[in-house]
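notes to self, project folder thing:

trying the whole complex as one job this time. last attempt i did each chain seperately and stitching them together was a nightmare. two parts in total, labels are on each line so i dont mix them up again. if this works i'll redo the older ones the same way
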Amino acid sequence: MGIYSCIGKNLEEVSASLFEGKSGIIFDAPRKDLGFRSALTGMVETPVLKGKLDRRQRLCMAEEVDYAYVATVEALQQARMDEQYMADHEIGILYGNDSSAKAVIEAVDISRAKKDNTLIGSGSIFQSMNSTVTMNLSTIFKLKGINLTVSAACASSSHAIGLGYFLIKSGMQDAIICGGAQEINNFVMGSFDGISAFSIRENSPSQSSRPFDKDRDGLVPSGGAATIIIESLASAQRRGAPILAEVIGYGFSSNGEHIIQPNVEGPTRSLNKALADAGLQAKDIDYINAHATSTPLGDSCEAKAMDGVFGQYKPPISSTKSMTGHECWMAGASEVVYSLLMMHNDFIAPNINFETPDEDSAKLNIVSKTKEQKIDTFLSNSFGFGGTNSTLIVTKFKQ
Amino acid sequence: MTNEQIIEKINEFLVEEFEVDAEKILPEAVLKDTLGLDSLDYVDLVVVIESTFGFKVKGEDFVGISTFQDFYDYIIVKVNEKNQVVA
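result (full assembly):
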């Protein structure tokens, strides 16, 4: 696995941040000049890829592809999957992404100003498409398997992992690079800001994302990329790869209602479907990484759904979005990475800023301070606009 | 802008934007081979010429350009034409 996020540029840094309960949220002043209602955001450094990739490769990469490349290099190294192995085997890529706004807007600006589309340049078309991550990474790493972008709003990369798991289980693929990427620039979130979805606690960025807390006032956008290599047992063992865990359940559903207002029934079906697919019961889950984004209605609906399914067992729950903000298209994959880091280091990362429960979150076992605890099996929720829901269950690999 | 200044600017963007090894930029060297140009790169040449010298190149203008010297000569002529119009 590999990660490039606002709480760390690699697995080691992110693991430390999770343990420390460190927030990656900042106040990004230029957003105010652009008329943003909220200038809060997670922020990452721009990776320096000159010297690592040639000019043509870099020209075709949108911002989120830069992040995805860095996360994927880390994941490939950990999985001991080198250039020769990828040349000799059919490796696929399934990545969650649902925008490439900066590239599109910059191209339109040039087109309008110059009245000559040649002056947009040669890289823009490859940066502008939703599939920019998969089209670039498949070319850079010379992949020969499935090559597909999954767009499902903030559940994109959770579905990417779930679909990858199905493809491997079916025997159609041996190994797939899965993940999710999210651009952070000033353009991508303007329309999201426009519907007043963001927290306006601008005087206190690290306290602005507060999932499940009674005083939450909206989500905080964020971004980066996360990659997970999933493969059949035979494929991993053939290469002597360190097996981090096993994906054992994928559930999904659509709310079938409103484009933005969530409900309880949809997520409940996704949770139950994942448990059934894994052959597990509610009592078997040691930790839940909640979707909870810090919006008033979304967190309440998820809390009700989790209480309905897990009720009496009260597994420990945290939303790492309290530290990272909402990593949107990337969140499903990054939150599996965060949960795997917790699993391997025997702790539960805190849901920071959870100070006062509301009537729904009071029924849950929300971990607000880092807790040292073994995790054998975790569940990760991701939900998105349009009522798309995805749930993954991952367990420790046992020989 | 003198011819020398124009050539200096061209070499500058070839090194900066196209990452060409400065030592390989020789007047008699073949532009396409040295730069390893493909069809997409010509688009970026058009962009950088427009932003550096302020005129738009047509794709067919590249047809007669083989060496770096051809390229310099083409740009020099175009820049001088533009200057005459301005004058």
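what i see at first glance: The domain at 2-239 of chain A is CATH 3.40.47.10 (Peroxisomal Thiolase; Chain A, domain 1).
need to look closer tmrw
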